[in-house]
Specification:
alpha+beta; 6-stranded mixed β-sheet; 16 helices; binds protoporphyrin IX containing FE; Cyt_P450_sf; Cytochrome P450
């Protein structure tokens, strides 16, 4: 096991250097296209790897392997704009960081790099502080997360499964006559989005539900020509309207349960947290569905008994969480004070990225190089105080399983409409998901 307290720590805290320009210049050389001469002894120089480049995006496991080889369980990396951070790669280290929120906390305002971050920095939506459950700490986090947990716990999983089946059937009806489909956008993204907004009390099929679904799609996953900022504004307005409506007429839904909870959250807090819940549910569950369909359609181990084979669908869902987990890296945690981790000195205010995919495939927990699907001890839902709140992974499982099983049941002869090697992963080091999943099948009689 790695020494988590790092008795032999190197003195290389990323925040140690007060000069922003210094780090920006010298770490740029590590990426390989600047010839600035680094000051001697700078820890990041020559070794920190850019996470924003395209190089490893198709095969991030190679990046994790080489980082582990070179740096051990905690690697210095460069985020967009060559902003330094630590990537936590080891399974014990990710567990340690997530379980010690008194040392590694969520409020990003303590970051020691803010003076280097431009307002239009691409990662701003993920690290810019918002007064939601995501960035809350201590008693305030327990209050906010407790309300979400209880509101989600009351969801009947059979009803959710039924609702997802109806959603999935309608979507499939839309393309089943054509014999071909692109499942990422027309199916995998749509099922969890619609399930999440219905869970919150938006009626299926209503015009404003459809508008919300469109705006959520644009704000979470903008395409060419979309305006994600305007769409996000409309999402906020629509959720605020939903909260006001449910305040007057509560129903059997997540929003009403949050409003009626004795913790007494304000409407503004509930709007923030509902947006967090919907966004947190949509992207990872969509990629979980699509990565599982890809595995089922490309791996011979599953091909023989795919249709209706509940056991193999369950195995595929679990294997994806180990090997192609949707949230492959999560940003993150910020060090509360100077501390040591995995032989490194982490400075107060340093940013740590949770390397969930790397941790899941840590050779320390898989010494025989066999990453198994037999248990669910992976870190795909993170760990500790801020982990994906307890009922959410179960709900995500219902949504993902229903989406996959319904598709296979409705299209038993579905096959990939491309060579497996032609499938491309989205150019993101954060989410692991395909750009498209083209399939063909026997068209249904119309
Ligand atoms: C119904 C579906 C889901 C819901 C409602 C949901 C909800 C949430 C919420 C509210 C949080 C914030 C927790 C906090 O900061 O206290 C969260 C965090 C998270 N969720 Fe989920 N989630 C869902 C599905 C998933 C899936 C499918 C994955 C990945 C396989 C996932 C992975 C995560 C991760 C990695 C975090 C960050 C935890 C951290 O900061 O350590 N979630 N989720």
């Amino acid at each position: 096991m790695t020494d988590l307290t790092g008795a032999d720590a190197e003195t290389d805290g990323l925040g140690a250097d007060p000069s922003a320009a210094h780090h920006r210049t010298l770490t740029a050389t590590a990426g390989g296209n600047s010839d600035a001469v680094p000051p001697p002894g700078c820890p990041a120089h020559g070794t920190a790897v850019r996470l924003s480049g395209l190089e490893y995006q198709q095969t991030p496991s190679e990046l994790y392997r080489s980082l582990r080889r070179e740096h051990g369980p905690i690697a210095p990396v460069l985020l967009d704009g060559d902003i330094p951070a630590w990537l936590v790669l080891g399974y014990p280290e990710v567990s340690y960081v997530t379980q010690h929120d008194e040392l590694f906390a969520r409020d990003s305002r303590r970051w020691n790099q803010w003076e280097n971050i431009p307002p239009d920095w691409p990662l701003m939506p993920y690290v810019g502080y918002q007064p939601s459950v995501l960035f809350a700490e201590g008693a305030e986090h327990q209050r906010r997360a407790g309300v979400i947990t209880q509101a989600l716990e009351a969801i009947d999983q059979f009803e959710l499964g039924h609702d997802c089946r109806v959603i999935a059937d309608r979507l499939i009806d839309g393309f089943s006559g054509s014999g071909v489909a692109e499942l990422m956008n027309s199916y995998a993204h749509q099922v969890p989005m619609r399930a999440a907004v219905q869970m919150c009390g938006m009626p299926a099929g209503a015009a404003d539900t459809e508008e919300l679904v469109t705006d959520l799609r644009i704000s979470l996953d903008a395409a060419e020509g979309d305006d994600p900022v305007a769409a996000y504004g409309r999402v906020g307005e629509r959720i605020a309207q939903l909260v006001a409506d449910k305040r007057r007429n509560p129903g059997p839904d997540v929003t009403s349960r949050m409003l009626l909870h004795p913790a007494g959250l304000t409407d503004v807090e509930i709007v923030q947290d509902l947006i967090s819940v919907i966004a947190a549910a949509q992207q990872p569950t969509a990629n979980w569905i699509c990565n599982t369909l890809r595995l089922l359609l490309t791996d011979n181990r599953f091909a023989v008994n795919v249709s209706g084979g509940r056991v193999s669908v369950g195995q595929a869902l679990n294997e994806v969480l180990w090997l192609d987990t949707p949230t492959q890296n999560f940003i993150g945690r910020w060090a509360v004070r100077d501390t040591q981790l995995g032989g490194r000195l982490i400075r107060a205010g340093d940013c740590l990225v949770l390397g969930l995919a790397a941790a899941n495939t840590d050779p320390q927990i898989w010494p025989e190089a066999h990453v198994g699907a037999e248990n669910s001890a992976h870190l795909s839902f993170s760990n500790g105080e801020h982990r994906c709140p307890y009922p959410a992974p179960l709900l995500a499982d219902v949504i993902a399983r229903t989406a996959v099983e319904t598709l296979l049941e409705r299209m038993p002869d579905v096959v990939l409409d491309a060579e497996p090697s032609e499938l491309t992963w989205r150019p993101s080091i954060w989410m692991r998901g395909l750009t498209a999943l083209p399939v063909r099948f026997t068209p249904a009689a119309q």
